[in-house]
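I had to read the description of the data format several times before I understood it. For illustration, here is how one protein appears when written out as sequence plus structure tokens:
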Amino acid sequence: MSVDLVWGRFVRLLIMGLASSTLWAQEPIRQETVQLRAAGTGFLNTGQGVDVGASDRRQEFRRQNLDALTAETIDVAASTRTMAAASLSFPTVANSSIAGTNPRFFGFDALDHSDQRFAGTGAFVNSQFSDEPPDQGLCVGNGFVVEAVNLALAVYDKSGNLLSGPTALNQFFNLHPSVVRSTPPVFGESLSDPRCLYDAQTNRFFVTILELDVDPPTGNLTGNTNLLLAVSNTGDPTGAWNLFELSTTADGSADCPCFGDQPLIGTDANGLYVSTNSFSLVTGGFRGVQIYAASKLFLAAGVPPPFVLHASLSPATNADGSRAFSLQPSVRAHGQQFQDFGSEYFLSSFNTRLLLENSVIVWALRNTALLQLPPGPKTKFVLLRKVVGSEVYGVPPDASQKMGPLFLGPMADPGVFELLSTNEHRMQQVTFADEQLWSSVTTGLQSPGEASLKAGVAWFAVHVEVDDGKLQAKVQRQGYVAVENGNVFFPAVGVSGEGRGAIGFSISGPDIFPSTGYVQVRSNGKTGPIHFAGLGAGSEDGFSGYPNQSPVPPPCDPSGKLCSARWGDYGAATVDTDGSIWLANEYIGPRPRSFFANWGTFITRLSSDD
């Protein structure tokens, strides 16, 4: 559908929506309007980056690590009170069966650590950092598959053939090289947490990423931070992209300069929505959720929108024990763009600082049609919030993996000593389909006959609607996914407008090399057996699991405790306009590794039943 046709339909609905708008806020928020700045044009390179050879592979420079600044700890006292009051315990879940066949399945190896490390051409050759884990974005549409992982971006066709890239994201966004390996080295802007979506309504691809300025001689953060946005000029992502930037330096309740960790992305008929967790670069403390909303139609036309709504939520815990953190904006399923016109829905965990939870929080941003108009005194938005009871979910343990031999060329083989970090139970990406919000979390769970807690998946389908200015929400379907004597983690749910869906994830265990898999969501709301997709070819043995020694240490301390390697931090899922479901997750693939890490990503396509 052309932008002109979309605009005509939008105007008719806008008149209807404004006639019934209620300009008040139920959830206390600080609202302001800010400006998105045009930042030029971006392109993917057509030539692949250069592997500089063994002489330079070990020449690494450590960039500023944000993990310490964003660390969130469990509130033990509050968890104890909550668990006692509600009689909560980790759920006991029957293991899913394992499928023997994969009908309508196709998959291919996508970006891996070597691709990411050696992406870049011209001045950007050998300018990338070794990064772990692979933060992952995936979007599919108009015959193209776009994947953004850490510091690299690539475009494939639907058969898995590489069309453009891998491109260094610093190169794509017209920034300086991440690092020039000169003597002394010179550092460029630091990027993190890419996301990607395709919007069929406007036939455009969108990519977002966090950017932090650094001091070129030292690589130290200077305090200036931005949210970067790229929008394809057409429905062909191998062509030009319009670039925009939005300052996030002051976007926190106190102790700024701040930065917006893990930008989350969604759309409705009117807008593009980004939610971040703001953290202080001074204290490292959480400074509140930040929501940004901008006209999708203006962005698709290549021009800055009239304004960007910026809403800031308090970082404090509410009286009911809930806490706003990682609000996942929803992406509309194909054909659902104009359902519940004027409302963008979000979903979040109840409080990620609690060990166990049995509720989720639904959010609705109202009056989104106003994003198309110049701001005025009555440009007010409504944020509704509702806590909804759910199945129990909680903090997962780190995942075990099959410990295979470690390939280090001519070096001695000391073996592998790593677990896989599963992080916490924050909400993962959300799809709005048939008035339901579909999402999932990694959770701790146990299974009959198994002695230890393990990582599994809890998933939800939450019915939502706004009736007479009030948000109505109820968990309509939910369930768990568990694998026998193993772990499933970092899930992502892809759902079509007809409610057909699949959940992709990573799988590992004492007898399972880190792999990818999926379950299909049946029409009755139940999940089917676990299908293996990308079969692991070895153990994770990246540098993040060996923090204090090089190249590889024995267990982390004399007691024999194993190190935990970074994994995730998230997978991705989407549904194409033809009904096919696409999933992207991390695994350990068969391709040659780089020296410091061996992670890979695997993209799965499940064709429509039609």
Observations:
- Confidence is low (pLDDT under 50) at residues 1-25, 407-413, 549-554.
- The chain has seven helices and 34 strands.
- The longest strand covers residues 454-467.
- Residues 3-606 form one domain.
